[in-house]
Amino acid sequence: MASKERTELEVGPDGVAVITICNPPVNSLSIDVLHSLKDSYEEALRRSDVKAIVVTGKGGKFSGGFDISSFGGVQGGQMVQPKVGYIAIDILTDTLEAATKPSVAAIDGLALGGGLEVAMACHARISTPTAQLGLPELQLGIIPGFGGTQRLPRLVGLTKSLEMMLLSKPVKGDEAHQLGLVDALVSPNDLVNTARRWALDICELKRPWIKSLYKTDKLEPLGEAREILKFARAQAQKQAANLHHPLVCIDVIEEGIVSGPRAGLWKEATAFHELLLSDTCKSLVHVFFSQRATSKIPGVTNLGLMPRKISKVAILGGGLMGSGIATAMILSNYPVILKEVNEKFLNAGIDRIKANLQSRVRKGKMTEERYERALSLVSSVLDYEPFKDVDLVIEAVIENVKLKQQIFSDLEKYCPSHCVLATNTSTIDLNLIGEKTKSQDRIIGAHFFSPAHVMPLLEIVRTQHTSPQVVVDLLDVGKRIKKTPIVVGNCTGFAVNRMFFPYTQSALLFVDRGMDVYKIDRACTKFGMPMGPFRLADLVGFGVAVATGMQYLENFPDRV
Q1: Which residues pair with 171 in a beta bridge?
Q2: Catalytic-role residue among 5, 97, 117, 255
Q3: Angle in degrees, CA 122, 128, 132, rounded to 5
Q4: Cα–Cα dist 308/473, whole Å
Q5: Pairing between β-strand 16-22 and β-strand 6-11 as defined by DSSP bridges
Q6: DSSP secondary structure code for residue 87 in this structure
Q7: Active-site residue flag, 117
Q8: Can you say how many angstroms the Cα of residue 221 is from the centroid of all Cα atoms in its chain?
Q9: For this structure, is 137 an active site residue?
Q10: Which runs of E-coded beta strand occur in 33-139?
């Protein structure tokens, strides 16, 4: 029986062999697929009826890259890692790129990691305008290991390649074309046929036959290249001082520029082999799979429930959190009603939203037109009258139990019966908040982290009364606003703050012993935390920190 993880070879009457990567859902490059790719290539090279080769992926996706699920087997010793250089050199360089017949990659959907590295080993690349191309391996604690550190700088230049690799930043097909990473853009329907003609044109010497590993026109002179790499090292250390693999990536790129691409390939292969077994890689692979597991909640997501449409969102409170949540919502095109208790607070909330958006404009992440369109999605009110047709309310007021209880009693009166009633409380028991309502089945926690429009985590808190439908609805909203939603149980502090509290408690104990708060913060940031506990308290507001601490004192008097 043929393996599901394979490539398929089909030769047309035009003499073009189309090799299709078949490993759904994203055509990942398992060892079996890579062996099959090599076999298909060798068969195409042997056959006298084949003039040229096209490599593509099944189902509208070129390839999502190396099969990450196999990492665990290699790291745990259950699977033998291929010999150093087998994939990057034996397969991609000495079989694909060195082939005596030209090959063209036909890219649709995505070409990420090893997928892009396969495409770069071909002699030309044709893409659809919306395809995603990138080398995101550093997110997993490794570096591109199939020749990407050597070929990408030669195709797009050193500066852009460093950005794409160190920041794991993919580009769309149209930008890839402008950069020179792909040679032409076509529609998905014309993709393979255009690639076939292009491959034949190379064969007939009507188009250049380019081995990207040996291109030099995009590389800066050696002195200038070293200055760029020096700056990249400084930025990498500034961004994450304790991470080793970004510096390894830069060293490997430099080796190829200084000693030649073949030497660079060997250094890359050796470094990839070592990094794959590192604790950093093991941890980041765990994070990768954990993030994807957050959307699978037994007793909720396996019931066949579909998320209901959320057309309008209301937010109570325009402070730091409320304005941040509103920003996150309008950035994903949700119309938002912002409610405050008086005109002064309401204007301040709108000003915070404007400032959040203007920051994106200044950084080049948003156009003025997009700014105006996003801002137009916000309306401001002082009463509950406009709440009669909202689908989701998120309460983001101060951590005061009686105030929140009153708010949820009011929401029950003014909001429609299907409306999801969410609280952004960071600590307070949801049963206490909903104690005076009859709508406990639709009360749920939506705990964002500051700044809410930037931080990716969303803690979804369910009680024993919360209906699975409401959880499904909020999971869907979380994904639409580009958050990583995690569903947790209901108790004081939930999951994140219960883990975080001992950290801040320890810092306070050191202060009690006379240690300087700045010294404590510096030690924490040196360790790798984005900021220390005291700077964080300043950011979220000391009132929030005190209110949170009081909740622990009341609920865990013997442990605090």
Answers
A1: 133
A2: 117
A3: 80
A4: 6
A5: antiparallel
A6: I
A7: yes
A8: 34
A9: yes
A10: 52-57, 103-107, 110-112, 124-127, 132-134
Confidence category of residue 3, pLDDT binned at 50, 70, 90: low
Q: Is there a contact between 8 and 20 (Cβ–Cβ < 8 Å)?
A: yes
Which among 137, 254, 395, 399 is annotated as catalytic? 137
- Residue 414's CB is within 10 A of a number of other CB atoms, namely 16
What pLDDT, in 10s, does the model give residues 453-507? 999 999 999 999 999 999 999 999 999 999 999 999 998 888 888 888 889 889 9
Structure confidence by residue, pLDDT tens digits, 225-280: 999 999 999 999 988 888 999 999 999 999 999 999 999 999 999 999 999 999 99
Comparing CA positions, the residue from 120, 165, 117, 111 lying closest to residue 138 is 165
Q: Is there a contact between 470 and 444 (Cβ–Cβ < 8 Å)?
A: yes
pLDDT in tens, 369-411: 999 999 999 999 999 999 999 999 999 999 899 999 999 999 9
Peptide bond into 261 cis (omega under 30): no
First to last CA, the chain: 62
Q: In this structure, what token pair is assigned to residue 362?
A: 């200044």
- Residues with Cβ within 8 Å of 90's Cβ and at least 6 positions away in sequence, in order, are 38
Q: What is the DSSP string of 54-82?
A: EEEEGGG--B--B-GGGHHHHHTTSSPPP
Q: What are phi and psi of 462, to 5 degrees?
A: -115, 145
Tokens read off for 34: 């890579």
